[in-house]
Amino acid sequence: MAAQQLTIIGAHMSTYTRTIRMALNFHGVTYKHIPLFPHTEELKKYTPFGKVPVMLLPGHPKPVLESNVMRVYIDGTYGSALAPSTLEQQMKMTLLISILQDQLFPHVILGVTKVRLFAEKKGTPEAEIVKRLEQPLEKAEKIITYLESLVADTRTQFLCGDQVSWADLYLYPCMDDLFSLPEAEKFKQWAPTLLAWHGHFKANNLAQETISGTVAETRASL
């Protein structure tokens, strides 16, 4: 299943797909993007798990799964400029990404964002959606306030040092979507440093080049 050129498979609204696309754009890599949604029949040709993104590499017979593996490939192939220069900042970056993957994504992106979007699509009354999100938001507060505590001493426009890192590329798509929801005022109160960082990063070319089709862009037009 080797591709003729590097190919990224994944929906525009997938936060992990956006992360990998931003990383490739950062390095100036030309790639093909196939915007497939998770768990579709067409996606089954590439992965038995239904998750995106999937990366196809020229000369590589098997699809590359999991964004962490793609991160290793990108750093190893195009250089480690997205890794902070100091050990302390590298540890901070790894912790932020780990919490995002273990806590923020399953409990907040899936538990709040996806629940709201699905309910709205079904025409569920707003009062019922708010009620349904009460417990997920309690969990979200613990996660987001902890993330805020990790970056509260940030004095630059990036999360881990003076330049963009994988921490920015992983966290930005999630926070961009969350700050577009009706619950955004809660998130902003819980995470003022992340809100300020989001405002800076929003103007970055990496964010602008990948916003099309995201939850954040879609909700901005409502």
UniProtKB/TrEMBL annotation:
Q: Which Pfam families match?
A: GST_C_3, GST_N_3
Q: Which GO terms describe its biological process?
A: glutathione metabolic process; L-phenylalanine catabolic process
CDD domains reported in the protein's UniProt record: GST_C_family
- Give all residue intervals belonging to the GST C-terminal domain: 86-222
Annotated GST N-terminal domain ranges read: 4-82
A single GO molecular-function term is:
maleylacetoacetate isomerase activity
Please give the name of this protein: Glutathione S-transferase
At the highest ranks, the source species' classification is: Eukaryota, Fungi, Fungi incertae sedis, Mucoromycota, Mucoromycotina
